[in-house]
Design a protein that fits this description.
The chain has helices spanning 13-20, 38-41, 62-84, 107-110; strands spanning 7-10, 25-28, 46-49, 92-95. By secondary structure, it is α/β, with parallel strands linked by helices. The model is unreliable at 98-111 (pLDDT under 50).
């Protein structure tokens, strides 16, 4: 089925379960301060990285633009740290927050 085997990393595991349903395995992850949890990544077939400061909320002030950029750069770097700690890394990784123009966060790991 659509959610079969789905795992989510979120600032709130309970919030992710509320939004996505009980069939999704949810893990708490503060993308700005810690590597992605290996328990959420280990053995996965695909990782879709969609995390970051919401672009549809609030005005795009200078501070908001910094938060958007930093949440994606730091979040991507912390995702890569979590992936590097896995003994079996997912063969497919897709970063889809805006345009991945922050590749410099971890160029070696994504090549």
């Amino acid at each position: 089925t659509y959610w079969e085997g789905a795992v989510a990393g979120s600032g709130s595991a309970a919030g992710a379960r509320d939004k996505l349903g009980s069939r999704v395995e949810a893990h708490a992850w503060d993308l700005m301060t810690q590597p992605a949890p290996t328990a959420a990544l280990e053995g996965a077939d695909v990782v879709f990285h969609l995390a970051g400061d919401p672009i549809a909320e609030g005005r795009w002030t200078a501070a908001k633009k910094v938060r958007i950029r930093e949440s994606r750069a730091v979040g991507t770097a912390n995702l890569v740290k979590g992936l590097e700690a896995c003994s079996r890394r997912p063969p497919v990784r897709q970063c889809a927050t805006l345009r991945c123009s922050w590749r410099s966060a971890a160029p070696k790991a994504w090549s």
